[in-house]
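FW: tagging you since you asked about this chain on Friday. Here's the raw sequence from the shared folder, copied in full. Didn't touch anything.
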Amino acid sequence: MTKLLGNRNGRTAGDGGIGRRALVQVFVLALVTAVGLVLGGPGAGSADAASPCGGRLAKTLTFSTGEVRIFRSRSYACAITVAKKSGPRREMSVMIQARGGRPVTDSGRYTKQTGRVTVHALHRCVRVAGSVAGKSGATGWILC
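HL: got it, structure written out here
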């Protein structure tokens, strides 16, 4: 029976030959690949991963001390104010308003950026304003 189960080298299937070694290598390769995808998979360092709002960047409004970034998805618009340089806490604010709706604001003392503000803006224009340390910028009705 050993003769029937043996391979070309005369080894049997159960004696730890090349078959078992190949199986272990395949298992280790699969394990390393899975861990790599979990810890630092494709796109781990991309800008989309760091985006504070859902959707795509639709517009950037710049002013002397920072900028307001406006993001748009199919039915929502979102905005954040980002300082040009991080530093000590200073007054910052962001406001977004959908046409026909109330403005949504976030203000306070921040080092780098405000929190995000989001409005439902399906088929509506929005206007946005932001400020960093007393300098500000604002738009009219945009993204119509």
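FW: The longest strand covers residues 90-98.
HL: agreed, and The CA atoms of residues 62 and 112 lie 15 Å apart.
FW: great, closing this out.
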